[in-house]
Amino acid sequence: MNLFRILGDLSHLVSIFILLQKMRSTRSCAGISLRTQILYLMVYCTRYLDIFWTFNASLYNSSMKLVFILSTAYTIYLMRTVYKTALDPQIDTFATYYLVGGAGLLAVLFPYKYTVYEVLWSFSIWLESVAILPQLFMLQRTGEAETITTHYLFALGAYRALYIPNWLYRWFLEGHFDPIATVAGIIQTLLYSDFFYIYYTKVLKGKKFELP
Amino acid sequence: KKEEQKHDEL
Predict the structure, then answer these.
(1) What does the pLDDT look like over A94-143, one tens digit per residue?
(2) pLDDT at B1 (0 to 100)
(3) Which of A78, A93, A105, A157 sits between 20 and 30 A of A33, alpha carbons compared?
(4) How far is A61 from chain B (nearest CA, A)?
(5) How far is CA A210 from CA A140, A146, A150, A194, in A?
(6) Chain B residues with CB-CB distance to A64 below 8 A
(7) Distance from the Cα of residue A59 to its chain's centroid
(8) Inter-chain residue contact A61 with B10, CB threshold 8 Å
């Protein structure tokens, strides 16, 4: 465990609280992609299967896993019930099947081992790397976002970005290297790069998030 | 023999 990883995990945790806070404070889920949330739930459910047999291995990991699964399920529940009037299927239209299909294909081609758990783990890593695309696509269609939504996206993107120095650290200091997670994590961070740039040049300088 | 990959991250 190193500082980058802890900061990454905390950033992930914070992003979920910001998302829930966004819905509570604006009483709306406008601007949030239901498709991306559903993809994340698939990611957590397929990656954290091991929670049933490693519960005692690390209380930290197990509790985080539970929080990620439950909070994402709760977010989806809120979006489909309390805040459903703000859902806009006309804007949230990204072809998610391609993402699930592509991640499935990569998982079957390159798992560390051919076991159900390992293939699902690999699937979850690839799916996570692209799960944000429906959300970014939606953002591009609307051309603007509420400031709190951009804080959510920043915290979510920062999580995987912070994992990159963590992987470097572990590679050099612990001899641990996870090629699947690292390649997928770099792709995931690259997908955010435009967003990070606009967040840095606009939101952090007190301006509204608007696409040029 | 290659050591098995541990999944100890989130």
Answers:
(1) 999 999 999 999 999 999 999 999 999 999 999 999 999 999 999 999 99
(2) 45
(3) A105
(4) 7
(5) 9, 9, 11, 12
(6) 10
(7) 22
(8) yes
Q: Collect contacts of A167-173 with beta carbons under 8 A, ≥24 apart.
A: A169/A2, A169/A4, A170/A2
CB pairs under 8 A between A and B: 21
The predicted structure's pLDDT at residue A212: 84
For A58-91, letters b (16+ CB in 10 Å) and e give eeebbebbeebbebbeebbebbeeebeeebbeee
Query: Could you give the CA distance from residue A177 to residue A169 in angstroms, rounded to a whole number?
Result: 10
A201-212 pLDDT, tens digit per residue, is 999 999 999 998
How far is Cα A158 from Cα A139, in angstroms, rounded to an integer? Answer: 18
Q: Scan for tokens 């939504």, then name that residue.
A: A149
